[in-house]
Design a protein that fits this description.
Layout lengths: L40 H23 L1 H9 L4 H22 L10 H22 L5 H7 L3 H13 L5 H22 L5 H23 L5 H26 L6 H29 L1 H7 L3 H13 L7 H17 L3
Helix pairs in contact: 1-10, 1-12, 2-10, 2-12, 3-4, 3-9, 3-10, 4-8, 4-9, 5-7, 5-12, 6-8, 6-11, 7-13, 8-10, 9-10, 10-11, 11-13
């Protein structure tokens, strides 16, 4: 996690020592800095491919979040799950920050880190965990499939990114597919769980956008690491309160689910995700998440025994086609 923790290798952040501040960003393929020289075409292509792979690994990790949450809820209350996953992830991230003697971020970055903490450390986990008390994993997965479009919209407002018209058309088509799938499964009557999931989309998109922006200035693992540390007073107090008021039954499923949420979804997945976003741009990376609900559907069948909706294969083909289009357009 030293020199190679910059988001985009030679065109991103150079970190000479773990404690030294990151050097100025030279530009990324999806978000070049004005006046910076363009990397050679082969190098640029390799960086984009590497960034897409990292973002895809993040999506793969996130696709297990809902099944892991369902497992954790078998033995714990929702507040216990959310607070303990963050406390455990902070132990890993905070330990890494201490071992490598990473200096705290500059003052100008703390507002963005607070948005990441509120969105992806606290808001999204809490809202989705509460939603999964009444919604199935497969239903929640397709609703959260709207996250790529929401993130792209936040990115356009926050960073000034202007994706092409083709990009937006493909994104909207993918969103329509996801919405149609969700409405068909819910019978056209959104309930409390759907409202919680829609709120989760907003806070998570804000956290993703700020995290992707910050990952141009510091390694991705430090972005999520400092966000976890910032939220630690809340998560420790919340965990203590939840453990004293909610039932706790440490089954294999419950412990396994909690450990994946803490180390896979909350930390390692976010590290890969933020580095990928910094490399290929927030809008393009967000479209890879169109595959996440479909992956989650597969996990829900394999791990939870849920019945795969008949429309899933058709939705999968349509969504994957949209991903292919968005990845070929220039942001």
């Amino acid at each position: 996690m030293r020199d190679n923790d910059s988001a985009t290798a030679s065109v991103a952040i150079a970190v000479s020592t773990p404690g030294a501040p990151a050097a100025p960003v030279q530009g990324t393929p999806g978000n070049p800095v004005e006046g910076a020289p363009e990397p050679a075409a082969p190098a640029r292509s390799a960086l984009v491919s590497r960034g897409a792979l990292l973002a895809a690994l993040g999506v793969a990790a996130f696709s297990l979040t809902f099944p892991a949450t369902a497992w954790a809820l078998e033995g714990m209350g929702p507040w216990t799950v959310v607070m303990l996953r963050s406390v455990l992830a902070t132990a890993l991230a905070g330990g890494a920050l201490a071992v490598f003697r990473v200096r705290p971020p500059e003052r100008r970055h703390w507002a963005g880190i607070a948005v990441v903490a509120g969105g992806v450390v606290l808001g999204f986990p809490l809202l989705t965990t509460l939603a999964l008390e009444t919604s199935t994993t497969s239903h929640a997965a397709v609703v959260v499939g709207l996250l790529p479009l929401t993130t792209a919209a936040f990115s356009a407002v926050r960073t000034g990114a202007r994706p092409s018209r083709t990009f937006w058309i493909a994104s909207l088509v993918g969103a329509v597919v996801v919405i149609g799938f969700a409405v068909q499964q819910s019978g056209g009557a959104p309930g409390r769980g759907d409202l919680l999931l829609f709120a989760a989309l907003l806070v998570c998109a804000a956290g993703y956008t700020e995290g992707g922006r910050l990952a141009r200035h510091m390694p991705g693992w430090q972005v999520i690491g400092w966000a976890l540390v910032l939220a630690l007073p809340v998560t420790v107090a919340g965990a203590a309160l939840a453990l004293s008021t909610e039932p706790l039954r440490l089954t294999v499923h419950a412990v396994s689910g909690l450990l994946w949420l803490a180390f896979g979804s909350q930390f390692l997945g976010m590290v890969a995700w933020y580095r990928g976003m910094a490399a290929i741009g927030i809008s393009k990376a967000s479209q890879l998440q169109l595959a996440q609900p479909l992956l989650t559907l597969v996990w829900s069948v394999l791990l939870l025994g849920e019945q795969l909706p008949p429309a899933a294969p058709a939705a999968a083909l349509a969504v994957l086609a949209c991903i292919a289009v968005t990845q070929r357009t220039r942001g």
